[in-house]
Amino acid sequence: MRPCPTHARPRAPERSPAPPDTPAPQRRAPGALALIAAFGGALAAAACAPDAPPPGPPSSAASAQAGARPDDVDASDTGAPDADPPDADPPADGRPVVSPVQRPDARDVPQRACSFTLPVCVHAPTDVPGAAVLEGLAHLEAAMRAYDALGLPRPLPDGERGGDPSYDLYLERGPRRGPLRVGHDMRALGERFDAASAFAIAAAPAPGRGGCAGASDAAYALAHAVAARLDAGAEEGALAMAASYLAAIAAPCPAEELAAVDAFQRTPERALTGAALGALDGALLFPWYLDDAYGTGAPAQVAMSLLAIAAQPTPAGAARFRGEPDVFDALRASLRARGKDLGDLLLDFAVARAFLGSRSDGAHLSDAARFGDFGRVRFEWSLPYATLPRRVAPLRPIEPTGATYLWLDLPAEGAAGAADLAAAEITFVADWELPALFRWAIVKVDRQGAEAGRVEVAGIFGSTRAQRTVVGLDGLAGLLIVGVNVGSMIRSRPFDPDDAPFMPHAYAVWLSR
């Protein structure tokens, strides 16, 4: 086995200090805020490591069965101020500073193989075949080269914790039984903002058996370490989302991605940040959408830039990282500079999710058709036009940032009742529980399954009802009704991913003609 080279410790990145009287959510480098407002430039220089390279729907046939649910169906500005008002709760605490996952003892993993060209190492017990160790090392090298090509910073050096400053992946004997375990070291000293080195523990790949799971795990582990360098205190859901997206870019694994996206689309009511660290999660669709809608062509720049912008210093001796500001605070500030709010973005993303996989119309997410039927989002109800009026409710309540979908199937041309569609009107009324705020969109879908128009229904602060009348139904296959729980209607309490577990809220929708 090759000996491991040593790597010089890079200098800590310099960041411009914020004025002492600047409110905490605004303590950002001005250039970085401008970057995110533009959505998609290279990462802020303050966040880049010195050793990193320069930054470079539904078709009518699949929609409804008369009087029954189809096979894939189960029964405005948030108003957030830039700084917390005096009577607001103190900033939420984030993840523990001490990782619940600890590095294995060096005596338990005596095998060690390191790259000659890149700062990555693999450790393993004596009963793990040497070929598996080298295969794991090759996966790490491939992932790091991919992230270098994207202009992302490399993981923070860990001193001598793994024998040298390189990133460490620890293998364990046995089959792949579940998600890998990712951990972080203590907050790095000398860094102006929260940053930490990281490591991972994964099942040893089976040499010669092929498959992409091992490469996906290695890419996920390394992506988590990159994110921990940008913001060690980021909420777990945001880290899982970013690591999943980066892993899908660096080490595409259809089997893993299909399973993750299918699970995500079958439970659209869950929060976007509800994933646990360690396994590829379908929430990767959200940073993917951010790149598609606001990026400039370089993958992952928007999501990783948001992590860098949300970084903050945690006081020495604290048991938990400071949880504020978080990624969604950075996203809100960036959207405000573009004249939009988080509710607009969440609703747009929810609509895009409906046109994924075999329902793709080619206009909402790039390369969305490759997921096939695994990408189809679950509809709560599919209602034939002839059965109106109807009042329906969801199978499960909706968590903040979660979405819900209803389908109204319109009769085809020449069918009974089709003649009056040109003059027909559909009245939509939605009621929901306090204190949630819902946003709605009524999407017109043509006979080819493409979006032909959209009517948005904004929630009003202080109200739990929305109402709209839709006309111009001729030539359509149906109406797709999309709802999003954008968080609390209390303006001083916008959605915070650190508030998990989230309180879901239900609704009722009335449709009549």
Task: Describe, in plain words, how this protein is organized in 3D.
This protein has 513 residues and is α+β, with helices and mostly antiparallel strands. 24% of the residues lie in helices and 19% in strands. It has helices at 30-38, 60-63, 130-149, 213-230, 236-250, 254-266, 285-294, 301-310, 327-337, 342-354, and strands at 93-96, 111-114, 120-124, 167-172, 181-184, 198-203, 320-322, 381-384, 390-392, 403-409, 425-432, 436-446, 451-457, 465-471, 476-488, 507-512. The strands form 4 sheets. A 5-stranded mixed beta sheet has the order 2-3-4-6-5, covered by helices on one side. The protein is elongated and about 75 Å long. The N and C termini lie far apart (74 Å).
Q: Which quaternary structure do these chains form?
A: single chain
How large a portion of the residues is in β-strands, by DSSP E? 15-25%
What helical percentage do the residues reach? 10-25%
Tally of individual helices: 10
**Uncertain runs:** 1-90
Could you spell the SSE succession in H and E letters? HHEEEHEEEHHHHHEHHEEEEEEEEE
Rg measurement, Å: 24 Å
List the helices and strands and how they pair.
Blueprint: H1 30-38, H2 60-63, E1 93-96, E2 111-114, E3 120-124, H3 130-149, E4 167-172, E5 181-184, E6 198-203, H4 213-230, H5 236-250, H6 254-266, H7 285-294, H8 301-310, E7 320-322, H9 327-337, H10 342-354, E8 381-384, E9 390-392, E10 403-409, E11 425-432, E12 436-446, E13 451-457, E14 465-471, E15 476-488, E16 507-512
Parallel strand pairs: 3-4, 4-6, 8-10
Antiparallel strand pairs: 1-7, 2-3, 5-6, 9-16, 10-15, 11-14, 11-16, 12-13, 12-15
Helix pairs in contact: 1-8, 1-9, 3-4, 3-5, 4-5, 8-9
